[in-house]
From TrEMBL:
The keyword Nucleus applies. This is Pre-mRNA-splicing factor SYF2. The gene is Syf2. Involved in pre-mRNA splicing as component of the spliceosome. It is found in: Nucleus. One of its GO terms (cellular component) is post-mRNA release spliceosomal complex. The keyword Nucleus applies.
Length: 236
């Protein structure tokens, strides 16, 4: 009788153990899923925060960041070359390939092509762009003005600007020096005169003058001797 009861207890014990193992396996999977859900929630929150930070940054922040990193690398390279007693510009040129140099020159020409003189408005625009590129803002002075005037530093349509700004002595001297440079450069160029006062007058009107110039350009070297004989009065 006892053996029969033991045989009946064994399947029930095995079934209970299997059920317990299955329950433990389900609980383990549930804990893993719970941990993965918390980890995904944490990562999503971090990504939302980073995206909000990127959205608040300026539009060209990535380009500025890359530019600053490049400038830091250049400074480190300059220090290394100075420590070795080498010329940085020479080392930089040695590292540039011929293809990169040609591509850089093409990009440079495309960026600032010399179109020559087309009209006075275009020449004035190019002069304005050249002068504005030379301007170096004084950030220290800007901060002082911002502390002094506050919101009044940024005028609106209702702001009264006339007579409120007094330029500094350094700014006036800088403007005067720049104007003197422009005058000095302008004096080096002479206006092309339509007529040469010292040239011989061999025409009766403007149309005839153009014809004579064209004839001189094509046949002048063949008729130079004849012209000289006629002027000396020794022509046969």
């Amino acid at each position: 009788g006892s053996s029969d009861s033991e045989d009946e207890a064994r399947p029930s014990t095995a079934a209970a153990a299997a059920a317990l193992q299955k329950r433990e396996e389900r609980l383990r999977k549930f804990r893993e899923l719970h941990m993965k859900r918390n980890e995904a929630r944490k990562l999503n929150h971090q990504e939302v925060v980073e995206e909000d930070k990127r959205r608040k940054l300026p539009a060209n922040w990535e380009a500025k960041k890359a530019r600053l990193e490049w400038e830091l690398k250049v400074e480190e390279k300059k220090k290394e070359c100075a420590a070795r007693g080498e010329d940085y510009e020479r080392v930089k040129l040695l590292e540039i390939s011929a293809e990169d140099a040609e591509r850089w020159e093409r990009k440079k020409k495309r960026k600032n092509p010399d179109l020559g003189f087309s009209d006075y408005a275009a020449a004035q625009l190019r002069q304005y762009q050249r002068l504005t590129r030379q301007i170096k803002p004084d950030l220290e002075q800007y901060e002082k003005l911002k502390e002094q005037y506050g919101e009044a530093l940024y005028p609106t349509s209702d702001s009264l600007l006339h007579g409120t700004h007094v330029p500094s002595r350094e700014g006036v001297d800088r403007m005067v020096a720049d104007l003197e440079k422009q005058i000095e450069k302008r004096e080096k160029y002479s206006r092309r005169r339509p007529y040469n006062d010292d040239a011989d007058i061999d025409y009766i009107n403007e149309r005839n003058a153009k014809f004579n110039k064209k004839a001189e350009r094509f046949y002048g070297k063949y008729t130079a001797e004849i012209k000289q004989n006629l002027e000396r009065g020794t022509a046969v």
